[in-house]
Amino acid sequence: MGDFNQETLDWVNLTTHAKGEEFLYLIQDLFLTQHMSEPTRGDIILDLVLMTEEAMVDEVHTGKPNSGQQPLHTKMEYNL
C-alpha cells in the first residue's frame, strides 16, 4: 500500500501514457492486483493497494481528509 504518483494510469481500463507503461507492465508481470477503486486525490487513484492474492483483500475504502492539507485516509480489510 502506498502513494505511487502515477497520475497517467487508468486503473479501471488498465491504460496509460508512455510515462506509466513500464510501471503497468511491472505490475502485470508480477501478477499483482490493484484493489483501490475510489479516487484518492482529486479524480485520480494515486494511493494503491497491490497484492499477489486477490482474495486477501475484502474491502478498501477512502475517507475524508483530516485537514485541508492531509491526504484521504484509507481503511482496508484483509485476510491472512
From TrEMBL:
Locate the region Disordered: 61-80
Superkingdom per UniProt: Eukaryota
**GO biological process terms held by the UniProt record:** cell adhesion involved in heart morphogenesis; larval heart development
In terms of PANTHER family, this protein maps to:
PERICARDIN, TRANSCRIPTASE, PUTATIVE-RELATED-RELATED
A cellular-component GO term for this protein = extracellular matrix
Q: Taxonomic classification, please?
A: Eukaryota, Metazoa, Ecdysozoa, Arthropoda, Crustacea
Designated name of the protein: Uncharacterized protein
